[in-house]
Structures are given as C-alpha cells and as structure tokens.
UniProtKB/TrEMBL annotation:
Segments forming a coiled coil: none
Gene name in the database record: RvY_13845-1
Transmembrane segment boundaries: 49-67, 79-99, 119-140, 152-171, 183-208
Lineage: Eukaryota, Metazoa, Ecdysozoa, Tardigrada, Eutardigrada
Places the protein is found: Membrane
Domain of life: Eukaryota
Protein name as catalogued: ABC transporter TMD0 domain-containing protein
InterPro entries registered for this protein in UniProt: TMD0_ABC
C-alpha cells in the first residue's frame, strides 16, 4: 500500500529497499521498459542486472577455469602482445572501478547517505573484483598455452551488451536533461571503449609455438624460430 492507502501500480516492480536505488527511480517499470515505442530500462536496473549477470557468469566459471589450468601440461612464461593488452585493459578497468567506488564511498561518508544509491557502490565493487578476475583468467590462459577463451569471450560479450544499453541511456539523458553526475558519466565513458576493445581482442586466438613443438618448455631459440616463420591464417580467429 502507498502512503495514501491505494495499491501501488502493478507496472512498477521494486524488490529492494528505498536506499538501494536512486530517489524517484524504480528497479523495473513496465510502462517505460516494455509498453512503449521507445523502451528505456531504469538506472537501477542498469547498475544491477546489467552489471551483476556478466560478472556472476565469470565468477561461476572459476571452477571450470581452475580445472583447465590443472589439466594443462603447458607452463608458458612468455607474454604475447594480445595477453599483455588484455591484462592492461582489465587492470585499467579495475582501476576505474576502484576510483569510482572510492569516490562514491567518500561522498556517502562526507556528504550523506542520499548522495548515491547503494546500487552504485555495489556495482563499482563488483566490477573492480571481476575485472581483476578477468586479468587472472588471461594470465592462466597464457600460462596454459590456450589460444582462446570462450569464457572471456562470452563475459565481454554480455558486458558489452549491458554497457551498450547504459551508454544509449546516458547519451539520451544527457541530450535531454544534461549531465547530472559528471564524475560517474566520465568514468563510464572512459570504461566503455575499453570494454569494446576487450571484446574485440577476445575474438582473436593467440599463437603458441609450444603447441606445435609439443614440448612443455622448449628452448627460446625454437620458440623464436616458430614465431619468426609463423604465418597467421583464418584459424587465428576465435572459433567457438
């Protein structure tokens, strides 16, 4: 029941406490998200479901990743440019998420609890931990000489879909009402192209000469010779 004694609208679904979402925002509103020619999901939905689901997928696949690491007979110390780029981008995204989390926590501590909703702080924390986990996945795949990772491909795909929805929403809102929170807007706009780059990189497989040589740790001269005479082909694309 609402304050005036009437039943709440059946088109609005809000299972969380009031502080969880921004004031005036709901988790799901059928009127704006479904029964309209211009669907728009709420900010609360963007910061929860569109962030949580991809991150949950990556954490849920951790036992499978651990099994693949233990079952691999390769132990590669060499870094390729793809592995380095993926790691740097993952750590850069983690830094952005940590900066956002620190800023939100500072604002909540100094200004007041109503400055930011809880969902923003939780989303930043989850993203920071998940991006670090993604960097660990890259290292483990490189260590085990695995040319590609279907887990990371789907993670970045799901995350890119969610970020694209949020990107569209932020741009439309900025055009109609201006930028309300320049800090969060800037952090997201800095992170979005990095997520796009991660997805693009995840579409390509790496080349490990150790697999062709059939040795766990071949001598560096053999590895350099394989890399020098290796000719990339269509097989370098990730095949799922």
């Amino acid at each position: 029941m609402t304050a005036n004694g009437s039943a709440p609208s059946a088109t609005i679904y809000h299972p969380f406490p009031d502080r969880f979402c921004k004031a005036g925002d709901s988790f799901w509103d059928v009127a704006t998200s479904w029964n309209t020619s211009h669907p728009e999901v709420s900010e609360c939905f963007q910061q929860s479901v569109l962030v949580w689901l991809p991150c949950l997928f990556l954490w849920a696949m951790l036992p499978y990743q651990a099994y693949r690491v233990m079952s691999s007979r390769f132990r590669i110390n060499r870094w390729s440019w793809i592995s380095m780029a993926k790691t740097v981008l993952s750590l850069a995204l983690a830094v952005l998420a940590l900066v956002e989390m620190s800023y939100i926590a500072h604002q909540l501590n100094t200004v007041g609890l109503g400055t930011y909703p809880d969902v923003d702080l939780i989303a930043a924390l989850i993203k920071a931990g998940t991006y670090m986990l993604a960097a660990l996945y890259v290292y483990l795949d490189k260590r085990g000489a695995r040319p590609s990772s279907g887990v990371l491909f789907f993670f970045w795909l799901f995350l890119l879909i969610g970020h694209t929805v949020t990107f569209r929403s932020k741009i439309l809102r900025a055009r109609s009402h201006g930028v309300e929170d320049s800090f969060s807007f800037g952090i997201f706009m800095a992170a979005f192209p990095l997520v796009c780059l991660q997805f693009i990189l995840s579409c390509f497989a790496e080349y490990f000469p150790e697999r062709e040589l059939g040795e766990k740790t071949p001598c560096p001269e053999q590895v350099r010779r394989c890399i020098l005479y290796h000719k990339p082909s269509a097989n370098t694309l990730l095949v799922l």
